[in-house]
Design a protein that fits this description.
Elements lengths: L10 E4 L16 E8 L23 E8 L12 E6 L3 H5 L7 H6 L5 E5 L2 H4 L1 E3 L12 E3 L1 H14 L2 E6 L6 H15 L3 E6 L18 H18 L5 E6 L2 H15 L3 E6 L12 H4 L2 H21 L3 E6 L14 H16 L4 E6 L10 E2 L3 H6 L3 E2 L1 H9 L6 E2 L1 E6 L5 E7 L5 E7 L8 E6 L4 E10 L10 E2 L18 E3 L4 E6 L3 E9 L2
Helix pairs in contact: 4-5, 5-6, 7-9, 10-12
């Protein structure tokens, strides 16, 4: 969301390794130049895509230019890119949905993915218990073999794999080894890997370790865990270090890569902190400043991945830390933030992303939840606004990110990500962050003679603050957790190499262009 009056020529770049800079006009055959103009639409409704001169619609447009260069695309977005993250304390409840409820249908609607179980509860609330391992006094509940058996059913029926965090704060390598052995026996190939500890860099801050705690001390304990785990279950892949943010990752990430050689590197991201001053707000969540900081954060994460050749997965992220904040995390604004951040992470070549959730708290940052205890037990989960961001971005799985840059007075209000679709297609994910009473944008897409038309899949809601009424392609997720795209989407012709598409304020859209046949 724009803050104050922008500079006359504000430029924002989407960075990838080797990005050549901002290009206003790209003349190579493999490139596309896109221009946007802010236009007063007088309350344009739904997902309409209009083929008309945006300058004729109300106030004079504010020009925004986007350059997209399709040369040297990045690697394809992995098939299991999308994911959810839950607390280990929710594992038993979530696992029970393998036999009842609508979670299987919800997960299937996204394709394949990764379910991560971790969070602070893995270190402070939940402990493994079996015939050889008694539940310790500090633990509020125990995790048992029956829970993993149920989790296998969920994994098999949905096609999603599992990333499991074992507790490290209360040091017990043998208990962890028994837990992993049970998980492997039950889950088999559905067990993606193991993390040791959740945000271990913060242990000293939370009085879980003495001052002076650092990676060297952490790694010494991880080595003990890995030896115990290998003795019972050889060959289990490890992921880590699962740190609290990219700044500490600059220290911990390289050391994790060289000391542990993990299957994947992992870390967390929350754009807003629950205790920040000024307090979190929708305006801050959707600001250009946050987007810029997120690009820098992704650069820090991915620098280690590129240097070591080990994939990086953002295995926990949400809008506001500490479980989220009502009025922000459960509002439509969170869906616009998530749509942009998922696409942003794809452009950065992150290998996957897991949105954090709590099935029992519909006021937090969760993608799915149950509004009452009775519905929680039944597994009757409902799709929250941020779930629609996952549905919108799933179409980008398998595409290859390409370079893009925006410039102009209104650039602060618009996010654009570009990816090359298989067989020469092009997809643009656009998020318009202004309040719903603003004019929106009219996009003039200069795509050349290689395309004849574009389709528009729109993500809409009554307002940025709305907690309901969200639709994708004019459709809501059904009561049974299913969603499918309409058989016919709004279509825009490409005339003389140009397509014009209107995007209302407070909305997002996926614009897809197929090459001419």
């Amino acid at each position: 969301m724009q803050q104050g009056k922008p500079r006359a020529e504000e430029v924002r770049r989407k960075r990838r390794p080797g990005f050549l800079g901002t290009v206003t006009i790209v003349t190579t055959a493999a490139a596309v130049a896109v221009s946007l103009a802010s236009a007063g639409t007088g309350g344009a409704s739904g997902a309409r895509a209009l083929e008309q001169d945006p300058a004729s619609q109300g106030p004079p447009p504010v020009a925004v230019s986007v350059a997209v260069d399709a040369r040297n695309p990045g690697p394809a977005v992995p098939a299991d890119y999308l994911g959810l993250s839950f607390e280990v304390s929710d594992l038993a409840q979530v696992a029970s949905y393998g036999e009842h409820g609508d979670l299987v249908a919800l997960l299937r609607s996204l394709g394949t993915g990764v379910l991560r179980f971790g969070g602070v509860s893995s270190d402070t609330q939940i402990a493994w218990a079996d015939a050889s391992t008694r539940q310790p006094r500090w633990a509020k509940r125990s995790l048992e073999a029956e829970d993993f058996a149920k989790l296998r059913s969920l994994a098999q029926r949905s096609g999603w794999k599992v990333l499991l965090t074992v507790g490290l704060a209360h040091f017990d390598p043998m208990a962890a080894a028994r837990e992993v052995a049970s998980a492997k026996q039950a889950l088999g190939p559905w067990l993606e890997g193991i993390e040791v500890g959740n945000e271990p860099d913060a242990y000293a801050r939370h009085d879980l370790r003495a001052p002076g705690w650092d990676f060297a001390r952490y790694n010494a304990e991880v080595v003990s865990y890995r030896r115990a785990i290998a003795a019972l279950t050889p060959g289990i892949p490890i992921a880590g270090p699962g740190v609290s943010g990219s700044r500490i990752y600059v220290q911990w990430g390289p050391q994790e890569a060289y000391a542990e050689h993990p299957l994947m590197l992992t870390g967390h991201h929350y754009p807003l902190g629950c205790h920040q001053v000024p307090a979190p707000s929708i305006t801050r969540l959707l600001s250009a400043g946050i987007r810029s900081k997120e690009e820098e954060s992704l650069d820090r994460y991915m620098a280690v991945s590129h240097r070591t050749g080990i994939p990086f997965r953002m295995d926990e992220t949400g809008s506001v830390s500490c479980g989220g904040q009502p009025g922000i995390s459960n509002a439509f604004a969170s869906a616009l933030w998530a749509s942009n951040y998922i696409a942003q992470s794809m452009e950065a070549e992150v290998s996957g992303i897991n949105l954090e959730g709590n099935p029992a708290n519909c006021e937090g940052y969760t993608p799915v939840c149950a509004p009452t205890p009775a519905r929680l037990q039944e597994g009757a989960l409902q799709a929250q606004p941020v779930w629609y961001a996952l549905l919108l971005t799933k179409a980008l799985v398998g595409d290859r990110p390409i370079r893009s840059a925006t410039s102009g007075q209104g650039a602060a209000n618009v996010s654009v990500s570009a990816l090359e679709a298989p067989e020469g297609g092009l997809r643009l994910l656009v998020a318009e962050d202004e309040p719903s009473d603003r004019g929106g944008v009219s996009l003039r897409l200069h795509v050349g003679s290689g395309f004849t038309s574009a389709t528009v899949l729109s993500l809409r809601a009554p307002s940025l603050k709305a907690t309901g009424g969200v639709t994708l392609g004019g459709r809501a997720v059904s009561a049974t957790g299913e969603w499918s795209a309409p058989s016919r989407l709004p279509r825009v012709r490409v005339r003389r190499g140009v397509a014009t598409v209107r995007i209302p304020a407070a909305s997002a859209a996926l614009i897809s262009l197929a090459p001419a046949r």
